[in-house]
Amino acid sequence: MSKFQIVVPGLLLLSSPVFAQGEPLDDAAGESGLIIVTAARAPITSDQIASSVTVLDKPAIDASQAIIISDVLVRATGVTLTRNGGYGTATGVRIRGAESDQTVVVIDGVKLNDPSSTGGGYNFANLFVGDTAQIEILRGPQSILWGSQAIGGVVNIVTASPEKSLEGSFDVEAGSRQTFSARAGIGGVTGPVTWRLAGNAFTTDGISALSPRVGGVEPDRYTDVGGNGRVNVDLGGGAGLDLRGYYGRGRVEIDSTTRDTLDYSTTEDMLGYSAISVPLLDGRWRNRLAISATQTDRDSFGPTRARPQSLAAHGTNRRYEYQGGFAITQGWDATFGLEREESRLRTYNLPASLTAVIPTPTRGSARLDSLYGQLIAQVIDPLTITAGVRHDDHDRFGGNTVFGGGAILSLFNGNSLIRGNYAEGFKAPTLYQLQSEYGNAALKPETSEGWEAGLEQRLFDRAVTLSATYYARDAENLIVFYSCSGAPAGLCLQPGSATIGRSGYYDNVSRTRTQGVELGGSVDVAGFALSGNYSWIDAEDRSPGATLGKKLRRLPRNTANGSIGYAFGFGLSLAAAVRWSGKAFENAANTQILDDYTLIDLRAALKAGDGLEIYARAENLFDEYYETARNYNTLGRSIHVGLRGRF
To answer: Which CATH number do you get for residue 14?
Structure first.
């Protein structure tokens, strides 16, 4: 009998996106009145949200003891993860089977992506928990409010904001493989000014990124430093000034797909945001003007090359936003806005020989103008409906319009919730896909249509919560890369040339169909907590050709998570968590299999004084070997001990 057969069945009787004690994930609908930002780009209560959302507050994040955001997300309903090795290696997070670059990542309301990367998505490798106070995971197409890339969903990360005149926090821990992590934050409220500064550092000797089963031996080190800050100034009359910044820099050693190497890469992320908010008409009309900028620099090096640097990639985004909100009447609220996004890339692929001529860099730029509006209306006391529309105008491919709408019925004092939602999403072609040497200027945006229906029941004064959701999504015009061979013709010719060929090109040719079921449940009584979730994701390639009907690569059809824990009255908390992933396919032809696996973790925490806590965890307790990407290694058994303080 496997470890999965021993541990999981009892947990799945109460499967939920809520993890208690060691891994507490709180479903938004599980607590009436919980404030969510992602779903409406403004504060809104959970019982008004028609689509599925999971929320993790600060106590839940602390209890998880996770160091990086992706390790928290992977235990949430409908979320899967792919990582090419240990900490710091390329990490993709997929929501409901959508590709990682079809997920929008937001820090404090600022949308992140990397315009210099092939797919334009965000690499979660260097995103640490740090000063995070809340994480919101919105599932399903969300392009009405969040624009391009929101086909799978949105991950919104909210950093801490102080409430006292002076307050701070710290976490420091050490563990297996010479791993050390530390973070600290301090802030306060002084008159009209609220401020917060935080920083974090991480280092590990790591594991070989290449699997030991194909010869990986040498450990690959990873280091990272980062920080964030925010200042809010109350200008009086409800008006305010908001300034935020974020910085992170990581260095990770990497391997090829066939052998250990001394190669390494660095990534530097910067974010800046400034906004002014002005309410009018006694606060009924809310206005916010904002400017934000992000920059990502990626460099790759091979120390054994004559010219060590092999890649230099630079991507920037600048966004100008107006967002308005209007309280029409009691229970009726509109959100609307205008946005302009300007993105640029510059990449060099540098030859190894010092005598070779450095090629002209690949450069690209694009502008995206957007107009959106959404109405949330409580038409009758138990029924709230949502409807919205968005139009985007891209200076390369033209216009695109998406629609969406849903409803939530709240019965029996909010203890019974019935949700239904329809939404459309799109993803603009990336600068690399449009304007690199493999580019295709005629590309159209990737598009999706999806719907979901779900219900949730709260019992025994909300000590027990049960939920179930079914969803389906069709995606079309997906962009894929084609290799060229033989005599050049058509798109295998370099743009503007009738004779010169190229090795490949991008084109809109793929489509997928995804459906799924999400089950959840939790029990929380007198310090005892039991919870879990189960996700069935059936994602097929619907493109004509040899792969028609095949399952999407690296996407397990079945996943489950569970947790059981108890908090003693004298300050000790104990918990065990399990994560199971069914088998997946490595390749589009479905001939290479990634085996299923089961991971079991233990958590413990003990209050050691006013605001102090000692904690420890054992991850992958039974040292299970598994792969999320073929021939890439994963972390085995790991032991960590730490101390945290809150004052």
So the answer is: 2.40.170.20
Q: Tell me the DSSP string of 332-347.
A: EEEEEEEEEEEEEEEE
> Does 462 fall in a domain?
no
Calculate the CA dihedral of residues 616, 21, 157, 458 and round it to 10 degrees.
Answer: 170
Three-state DSSP class for 4? helix
Q: Is residue 466 part of a domain?
A: no
Within-domain flag for 199: yes
- Judged against a pLDDT cut of 60, whether residue 71 lies above it is answered with yes
User: What gap in Å lies between CA 516 and CA 557, rounded to an integer?
Assistant: 9
The whole-angstrom separation of Cα 435 and Cα 518 is: 39
Give the Cα separation of 344 and 366 in Å (integer).
Answer: 7
Strand partners of residue 414 = none
Give yes or no for residue 482 having a pLDDT over 60. yes
**Residue 108 token pair:** 């404090």
> 552 CB contacts (<8 Å, ≥6 apart)?
97, 512, 514, 539, 540, 541, 585
Task: Decide: 241 and 223 in contact? Cβ < 8 Å.
Answer: no
- The 10s digit of each residue's pLDDT in 11-49 is 333 333 333 333 334 343 334 445 566 656 767 777 778
The answer to whether the CB of 520 falls within 8 A of the CB of 2 is: no
Q: Which residues pair with 286 in a beta bridge?
A: 279, 325
The domain total for the chain is 1
Neighbours of 436 (CB within 10 A): 18
512: in domain:
yes
For tokens 């602390």, name the residue. 62
- Distance between CA atoms of 85 and 438, rounded to whole angstroms? 28
Q: Which helix (DSSP H) or strand (DSSP E) does residue 438 occupy? A: none
pLDDT one-digit tens code per residue, 164-193: 999 999 999 999 999 999 999 999 999 999
Tell me the β-bridge partners of 229: 197, 245
Quote the CA–CA distance of 491 and 501 in Å, as a whole number. Answer: 9
The DSSP string of 546-559 is: TTTTPBPTT--SEE
Distance from C-alpha of 134 to C-alpha of 129, rounded to nearest angstrom = 10
Q: What percent of the chain has pLDDT over 90?
A: 79
**Rounded distance, CA 566 to CA 362, Å?**
56
Residues in the chain: 647
Q: Which residues contact 206 (CB under 8 A, 6 or more apart)?
A: 85, 86, 87, 88, 177, 219, 220, 221, 222, 252, 253
Question: Measured between alpha carbons, how far is 21 from 604 in angstroms, rounded to an integer?
Answer: 9
The Cα–Cα gap between 310 and 181 comes to: 30
CB count in 10 Å sphere of residue 62: 19
In terms of pTM, does the model score above 0.70?
Answer: yes
Q: Which residues of 593-632 are buried (b: 16+ CB within 10 A; e: fewer)?
A: ebebbbbbbebbbeeeeeeebbbbbbbbbeeeebbbbbbb
Return d(Cα 431, Cα 362) in angstroms, integer.
Answer: 10
What's the domain range around 500? 3-352+362-453+474-646
